[in-house]
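Severity: low
Component: inverse-folding endpoint
Summary: output formatting inconsistent between runs
Steps to reproduce: submit the following structure tokens with default settings.
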């Protein structure tokens, strides 16, 4: 069955069609274990945190050691020296490398945004020249988009490329900032406007071209072991053949690469959240107060139960998305789409999910590292446990690859575009059902199945969107708080549905043991918590409209019936499973 990105909001998904992480094969599990072993040796054996301003040679050496294991060419075709992992395995790779703290940013930049522009948009000459050396880390990469006056509004960048006909090159002039890997990069993907163009173009710029001046290492809150510098271009000569893609395509390239970066960042955030939870569970078992382990106190069990729920939900949705991108690639290939366009088009189709998961994953990470530090108490504030480092490193995830505010608005805007402008998503069919569903609610025909709960939320999302649009018209785009609340409802629907689909699939494949019961409890708790969040966001939207509608208030109430579970007992059961199985492989 053909599916399109974003159509989860209008269609019911068959659980048999989704990927769940219990399906990882032996090779994928071995990849994750190999990365963990590598990071234990290279990162966790260190006495103290690396700092790019002091330890740059050591950081570069770790990257080169990773390349020797074949870990720097995961998205590069085999003919160019890479392993060309499928997209979902690439997400697992990013999750595993999160265990490496700030080194995750270093290698993540190299294998993702620093090299994917060439993988996706490079011509044969550019691929043959650069990709084999990128795969071995002989060439190390960076991505130069952000400028002092161009952050979220990337296309307002002022860096210029002027044609020098005598030397048959472009002369780059401008300034970039917050450039990861800048301190040691041999190659920069640089975005600039040619002459008086209104749109950006992209360039492959070698450091050896000259005219590149690096600022000092930035002093940062976290990810101190990653190099972050300003980069200045002063008449930097770039050969004509190093224009990447076509003239004026730079903004499109940047957006499509960021789609990849967003979903990959969500996977890395998931890995960081799991690290925080593992540390919390271990310490809750080891630390004793008032004659018993602190994990026996229900306040601690609340925190651990919530971590487990959030991680399980994020994991379910992230890898559902990754597999759907793989399936989209396969569909495009079967339809005869040119090979050099397949990956880009597949990613672009899932812009909504990539943005949603970037936001959701980064906020799950923030919760988990914060509560892990809290469970550790004073020891968590100490450098000794490395929990405070995870806490500091996590904060950037809500900022880079597009701030969470930008991604919330992007996810909603892209969905509305697909539904009402390009008509890629069939919103009419669900809109037609809404009056009948309201009628059934009014006359008392109430279905309380879990499928119906999810369907109710979808109806409510469209009802709220219509009320907001009718109230503000085109001015809705300026009502960013309302749009962000709608995006939060959208995310809750996607995560809840992904969690439930995973449970449905496990029901057919797992034995009725303690692990399965724990996952059932997580699913039940997710229904309860999603209902709370959808209800809260809906009421905030209602209260933000120019005129409060009694009809909308009634519709919100009937479409958010409370699940009948005891959340406290359910959450404690989840926590107790992990406390009693602290070696459980998440």
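Observed output (run 2 of 3):
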């Amino acid at each position: 069955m053909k599916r399109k990105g974003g159509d989860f909001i209008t269609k019911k998904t068959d659980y048999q069609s989704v990927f769940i992480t219990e399906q990882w094969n032996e090779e994928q599990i071995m990849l994750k274990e190999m990365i963990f072993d590598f990071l234990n040796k290279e990162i966790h054996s260190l006495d103290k945190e690396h700092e790019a301003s002091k330890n740059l040679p050591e950081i570069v050496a770790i990257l080169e050691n990773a390349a020797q294991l074949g870990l720097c060419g995961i998205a590069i075709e085999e003919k160019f020296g890479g392993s060309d992992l499928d997209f979902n395995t690439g997400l697992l790779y990013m999750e595993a490398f999160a265990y490496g703290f700030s080194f995750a940013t270093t290698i993540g930049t190299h294998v993702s945004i620093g090299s994917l522009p060439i993988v996706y948009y490079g011509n044969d000459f550019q691929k043959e020249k650069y990709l084999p050396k990128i795969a071995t880390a002989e060439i190390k990469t960076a991505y130069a988009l952000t400028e002092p006056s161009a952050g979220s509004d990337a296309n307002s960048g002022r860096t210029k490329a002027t044609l020098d006909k005598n030397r048959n090159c472009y002369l780059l002039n401008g300034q970039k900032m917050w450039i990861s890997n800048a301190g040691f990069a041999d190659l920069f993907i640089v975005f600039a406007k040619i002459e008086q163009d209104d749109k950006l173009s992209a360039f492959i710029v070698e450091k050896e071209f000259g005219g590149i001046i690096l600022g000092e290492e930035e002093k940062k809150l976290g990810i101190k072991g990653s190099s972050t510098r300003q980069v200045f271009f002063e008449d930097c000569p770039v050969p004509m053949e190093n224009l990447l893609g076509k003239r004026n395509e730079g903004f499109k390239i940047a957006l499509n690469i960021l789609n990849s970066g967003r979903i990959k960042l969500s996977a890395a955030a998931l890995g960081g959240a799991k690290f925080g939870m593992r540390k919390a569970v271990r310490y809750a078992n080891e630390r004793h107060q008032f004659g018993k382990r602190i994990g026996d106190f229900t306040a601690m069990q609340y925190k651990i139960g919530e971590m487990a729920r959030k991680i399980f939900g994020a994991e379910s949705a992230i890898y559902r998305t990754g597999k759907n991108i793989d399936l989209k690639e396969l569909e495009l290939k079967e339809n005869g789409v040119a090979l050099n366009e397949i990956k880009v088009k597949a990613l672009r189709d899932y812009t909504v999910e990539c943005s949603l998961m970037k936001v959701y994953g980064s906020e799950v990470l923030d919760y988990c590292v914060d509560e892990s530090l809290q469970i550790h108490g004073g020891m968590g504030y100490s450098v000794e446990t490395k929990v405070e480092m995870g806490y500091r490193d996590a904060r950037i995830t809500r900022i880079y690859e597009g701030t969470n505010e930008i991604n919330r608005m992007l996810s909603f805007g892209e969905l509305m575009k697909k539904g009402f402008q390009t008509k890629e998503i069939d919103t009419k069919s669900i809109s037609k059902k809404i009056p009948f569903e309201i009628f059934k609610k009014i006359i008392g025909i109430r279905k309380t199945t879990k499928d119906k709960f999810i369907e109710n939320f979808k109806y409510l999302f469209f009802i709220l969107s219509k009320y907001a649009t009718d109230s503000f018209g085109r001015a809705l785009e300026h009502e960013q708080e309302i749009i962000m609340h709608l995006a939060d409802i959208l995310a809750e629907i996607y995560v809840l549905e992904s969690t439930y689909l995973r449970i449905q699939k496990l029901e057919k494949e797992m034995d009725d043991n303690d692990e399965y019961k724990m996952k059932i409890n997580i699913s039940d708790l997710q229904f309860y918590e999603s209902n709370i969040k959808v209800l809260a966001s809906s009421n905030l939207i209602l209260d933000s409209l120019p005129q409060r509608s009694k009809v909308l208030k009634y519709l919100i109430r009937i479409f958010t019936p409370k699940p009948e579970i005891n959340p406290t007992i359910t959450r404690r059961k989840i926590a107790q499973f992990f406390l009693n199985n602290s070696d459980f492989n998440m």
